[in-house]
Automatic annotation (TrEMBL):
Its main location: membrane. Pfam families: GOST_TM. Residues 207-409 form the GOST seven transmembrane domain. InterPro entries: GOST_TM (IPR053937), GPR107/GPR108-like (IPR009637). This is GOST seven transmembrane domain-containing protein.
Length: 409
């Protein structure tokens, strides 16, 4: 079985591996193969929320207030043995999620297809071998469909660089699609750049920059108050209060780093790896220490027991396991292209953290019950009242958290 110290050795290696897939709002394609979906072959090029471009009648801001998806050096490669065959067009399809039903169709109410079939071509609704699409009911110029074909026996075809201006706020998807079985081993290279009016932050992440800026200020104010009291009563400080000081310090560093991370991401479209990794690590350490502090208080440390005794190693083991699971989850979620993590992969990483959270909560409330009984038996009424309020506050926090999770799901 892998020892805990070995896990700490492999964690930096795992994090280092994820560094190489950093893309953010710049979606890079490095030889991705087309996958068969029904009668089509598809590569998912990206999916992001984008706000509409700012109105600028005087054209003062040029492209500062523009939202767009830009294609740069998108190249398709086919194997040498496939170059002897004539091929159909490879198409890029960009659509807003509300218009997803405008892609694909069926003849006589049959099975829905993405590529135009012979039956549909006979009906005159599309050209055989091309992607089926209909103009959006709200915007006749959407979805955007354009493509390129291989010339003669060329093995490479490069899509002309272009920018698609976004005039409506929404969730946009990009797919590269072809309908030619002779191109089943086709690959795509290049990149697309997705930009919002105020920068490169994806739509769902844009409000977070202001949020982290506000939280940084809030932590600074909290830190000033806490450290002033800490300096004033430093002779009477308990060990747990030193841990709280550590949590506040980590919180200040985490919020500041996340703000600078998002600001740089917004400016360049590329996630700053160093800042991101430090923000993740500070945040994970903060959450781990916070859980351990709450657990120690619940056990009555410093109130009904001077030490944790034999439980110390178990608490450390649980904290270390939580740190490892949370660190890996945060690295995978925050390092890489915005849309590159599948639901199943995310569930695989979220599940261990959720189980450990549940274990912490269960252990905390079990310990609180035992501590309350001891306080009641010893008739320590003041401390008993404090612990009851502490228990009620924790219960409310857990209920609110579960309710928020259910709302998000």
């Amino acid at each position: 079985m892998l020892k805990l110290r070995d896990s700490f050795f492999f964690l930096p290696i795992l994090c280092f591996c994820f560094v190489f897939i950093v893309d953010g709002s710049v979606h890079e394609y490095n030889g991705e193969k087309f996958v068969g979906k029904g009668n089509a072959f598809v590569v998912h090029g990206g999916s992001e929320g984008i706000y509409s471009s700012f109105a600028d009648p005087y054209n003062v801001t040029a492209t500062i207030g523009d939202s767009y998806i830009r294609f740069e050096k998108v190249t398709f490669r086919r194997p040498k043995e496939a170059a002897n065959f004539s091929s159909k067009a490879i198409q890029a399809v960009v659509f807003e999620v509300e218009d997803r039903d405008s892609i694909g169709g069926s003849a006589y109410g049959g099975q829905r297809a993405v590529c135009c079939t012979a039956d549909l071509a006979k009906l005159g609704v599309c050209l055989e071998g091309e992607v089926i699409y209909r103009p959006s009911t709200e915007n006749p110029n959407w979805p955007k469909v354009f493509g390129i074909s291989f010339n003669g026996d060329d093995e490479v075809a490069t899509l002309r660089s272009r920018s698609i201006k976004i005039t409506k706020t929404g969730m946009y998807n990009l797919y590269f699609i072809h309908c030619d079985v002779n191109l089943k081993d086709l690959t795509v290279e290049g990149k697309t750049i997705w930009k919002n009016p105020n920068g490169y932050l994806p739509g769902r992440m844009a409000p977070l920059m202001n949020f982290y800026g506000f939280m940084s200020l809030a932590f600074v104010i909290l830190g000033i108050f806490w450290f002033s009291q800490y300096a004033r009563f430093w002779r009477e400080i308990f060990p747990l209060q030193n841990c709280i000081t550590l949590v506040i310090t980590l919180g200040m560093l985490e919020m500041a780093l996340w703000y600078f991370d998002y600001a740089e991401f917004n400016e360049s479209g590329i996630r700053p790896v160093g800042i991101t990794m430090w923000a993740i690590s500070f945040g994970t350490i903060k959450r781990t220490v916070s859980w351990i502090i709450i657990l120690m208080v619940s056990m009555g440390y410093g109130v009904v027991r001077p030490t944790l005794g034999g439980l110390t190693s178990k608490v450390i083991m649980l904290g270390a396991t939580f740190f490892l699971a949370s660190e890996v989850l945060e690295v995978v979620e925050n390092v890489g292209a915005v849309s590159d993590l599948s639901g199943k992969a995310r569930l695989f990483l979220v599940l261990p953290v959720a189980i450990l959270d549940a274990f912490f909560i269960l252990w905390i409330f079990t310990s609180l019950s035992a501590t309350l009984n001891k306080l009641q038996a010893r008739r320590m009424t003041v401390k008993l009242d404090i612990y009851r309020k502490f228990t009620n506050a924790l219960a409310v926090a857990v209920i609110v958290s579960v309710g928020w999770i259910c709302y998000e799901v």
